[in-house]
Amino acid sequence: MSTESKNATAVSAQRPEPLRFALRCWWVLVGAEIIHQITNFTIAVQTRGQLRDEIASSQSEEISPKLLDAATIMALAGITGLSLIIVGIIAWLVHTLGRAQKRAPIARRVLGYFAIYFALRAGLLFSMQPQGGIDVAYYAIDGCVQMLIGVLGLLAIYFASRPESVEFIEGKKEQQG
Question: Transmembrane stretches, by residue range (predicted)?
């Protein structure tokens, strides 16, 4: 067993219970966000007609249908890829917070901003309506996942903001600094 894995085991054994709950919420949130992004990509690919029309109208010359379809799917894949990179950053922040590294206070703060975004996104779901000719079940599943993400984000903020969690995170920073 390496020194780093022994240190990680010692840190996880010392974590206060609210911080453990916050980390669990964040890890489930990361998994649910990946599911949301995959579902969102699937819905977008199935309803890509509007995006395809916008790409076609922005071009001065006629584009072949196959090329237009490929450009549409590549645009959707690029957007999904960027979203997954952001989810990867969130996962890294959760990892940093869980290890109580010197950047843990910053990670806690940034994760708090992401949690507020996820909660606002979940709240805005009630003003959205399904578009296109896709089955409403896709939207219902994706909406449930987004609401779960919003609730998990708020729970994670609550648990990470508990005095014992903050003391543990800030205390580790002072010991390493």
Answer: 70-94, 106-124, 136-160
* Distance (Å, whole) CA 97 – CA 79: 27
pLDDT tens-digit map of 74-111? 989 999 999 999 999 999 999 999 988 889 999 999 99
CB under 8 A, 24+ apart: contacts of 73-82: 73/45, 73/48, 75/51, 76/41, 76/44, 76/45, 76/48, 76/51, 77/41, 79/44, 80/37, 80/38, 80/40, 80/41, 80/44
Instruction: Answer with the residue of higher pLDDT: 20 or 46.
Output: 20
Question: Tokens for 135?
Answer: 């089955």
pLDDT digits (tens, 9 = 90+) for 121-133: 999 988 887 776 7
Of the pLDDT bands very low, low, confident and very high (cuts 50, 70, 90), residue 152 is: very high
For residues 77 and 69, give the distance between their C-alpha atoms in angstroms, rounded to a whole number: 12
Cα Rg of the chain, angstroms: 21
Q: Which two tokens stand for residue 79?
A: 């957007």
**Distance separating alpha carbons of residues 8 and 14, to the nearest angstrom:** 10
Contact between 25 and 97 under an 8 Å Cβ cutoff? The reply is no
Structure tokens at 41: 């990509």
Nearest to 153 by CA among 56, 10, 51, 22: 22
